[in-house]
Design goal:
This protein has 463 residues and is of the alpha+beta class. The chain is 47% helix and 12% strand.
């Protein structure tokens, strides 16, 4: 526990240095995760009668979580899972910090994607790989893009749960209006720029009433653009082969992204909603922009909101004109962790629940209820998933996107001890370029300098 408390203190130091609030990332000091050979054979561990699961799913997603838990509890009589909503992902991690310090952590927790280094470095996690190896649990049916995101040194640390990825959303009616083929959305930077120019519309006074393209300034979108460019965000295999020591996105790939984005804003055919994901989505719904990029998690909401107004199209995420063979998308979302501080029977009960939640039938229902990807491919053969695909045919493009993405360190995504701060700093970097406060290269270099100092400070605090 002393190690965890020291780790939490180091995180707060980094947060202050980066100008953030609470850090939720981590690096990889030796021995961060539990020894994967330490699990007792399953036959020797009777699962606990009751465990607690902390999650951050609200609204319809929270209802879907309850359905999974109720289904598990009624499927057998030995284990009862209690799911407790803990607020946002950040709220949950803050509460977990407190709970671990007082030995009151739950057996199972849901943590968002950029929190995975934090969980590994806390030393409070039993890697999922330990259970997988012990029980010879078959993961061959898992979506590679999803499961690979949660691996460190090719060992699975947590179990993927809710998974999404960004796509291009576009207005098919607007495409038809200007003579663009609504069945062939643009893919490359140049194609999107050319389409955006045609889609931009002004009124009689010269005021722009519809922009061609309107992405939010969001650090995750920049990370995705680096991945589709086949470029690393950080060294040491994006922090997956070993602890990252620096970010490297001030490369030619990073400059090309910002130059393209800046040219669109300067040219008046890219809308700039600022650092405002909801603002970008609302502008698209209101037809203030004809295209934008965002998570697949928004798809059902868009379809519902724009019903009867225009037809929604889904295209592949933007990439350079060269379409690098190493480029592809990164999965986002959250995963499930089994906590080391709980007794072995509780860990075993959590593992039984995790296996149930990964079953094809449950994953198909999860997709139908939430719109997230199923983690296992065979879920698509189940009724709820088939019905979902029939109702939302646009989702097929999203499925193809992750399956067609090559699996490498670029598409696995970056993991850093200061990832939340890195994302915030990236947003300030993009904003400075779009507002004309700095050139693309100068903004990139300044952001990299700041983040490398933060990474170095964090690494020294966690030798």
């Amino acid at each position: 526990m002393r190690k965890f408390l020291g780790f939490a203190l180091a995180l707060s130091v980094v947060a202050a240095a980066c100008g953030g609030t609470t850090s939720t990332g981590g690096t990889t000091p030796s021995g961060g995760a539990a020894d994967m050979s330490a699990l007792a054979p399953a036959k020797d561990v009777a699962p606990a009668a009751r465990i607690t699961w902390w999650h951050a799913m609200s609204g319809v997603n929270g209802d879907a979580v309850k359905k999974i838990v109720d289904g598990f509890n009624s499927s057998q009589s030995k284990i009862k899972v209690e799911a407790i909503f803990q607020g946002t992902y950040d709220d949950l991690l803050a509460k977990l910090n407190t709970a671990l310090a007082s030995n009151a952590a739950p057996a199972l927790v849901q943590v968002y994607d950029i929190g995975q280094r934090y969980m590994y470095d806390s030393g409070q996690v039993v890697p999922m790989q330990a259970f997988i190896d012990r029980d010879k649990f078959n993961t061959s049916d898992f979506e590679p893009a999803v499961i690979n995101y949660y691996k460190y040194q090719d060992k699975l640390q947590s179990m993927p749960f809710n998974a999404s990825t960004p796509v291009l959303y576009y207005n098919k009616d607007a495409f038809k209006e200007v003579g663009l083929d609504p069945t062939k959305p643009p893919v490359t930077f140049t194609e999107i720029a050319d389409a955006a120019k045609k889609l931009t519309k002004k009124d009689a006074s010269g005021a722009t009433v519809r922009y061609g393209f309107g992405p939010s300034i969001y650090g995750w979108l920049f990370e995705q653009l680096m991945a589709t460019s086949g470029a690393l965000y950080a060294d040491n295999g994006n922090g997956r082969d070993n602890r990252a020591t620096q970010v490297v996105y001030n490369s030619a790939a990073g400059k090309a992204i910002l130059d393209w984005w800046k040219a669109g804003v300067n040219g008046g055919y890219f809308y700039n909603p600022g650092i405002d994901n909801d603002g970008a989505a609302n502008a698209f719904n209101a037809q203030k922009s004809a295209m934008y990029i965002e998570s697949t998690a928004r798809m059902r909401g868009h379809i519902t909101t724009i019903a009867g107004k225009f037809e929604l199209g889904i295209g592949l995420y933007p990439r350079p004109d060269s379409k690098p063979a190493t480029g592809g998308n990164i999965i986002g979302g959250a995963s499930l962790y089994i906590m080391k501080s709980r007794p072995a029977p509780e860990q075993q009960a959590a593992w039984e629940f995790v296996k149930y939640a990964m079953s094809p039938a449950v994953q198909a229902q999860w997709q139908s209820d939430t719109g997230y990807y199923p983690v296992v491919k065979s879920a698509y053969d189940q009724g709820p998933s088939k019905d979902f695909s029939t109702k939302y045919p646009q989702f097929q493009t999203a499925i193809s996107e992750i399956r067609d993405s090559p699996q490498n360190r670029m598409t696995n995504g970056a993991v850093l001890g200061v990832m939340p701060q890195a994302r915030q700093r990236t947003q300030k970097m993009i904003e400075a370029v779009l507002l004309g406060q700095a050139s693309s290269q100068d903004a990139l270099n300044a952001a990299v300098t700041d983040m490398n100092a933060a990474i170095d400070k964090y690494n020294k605090a966690n030798p």
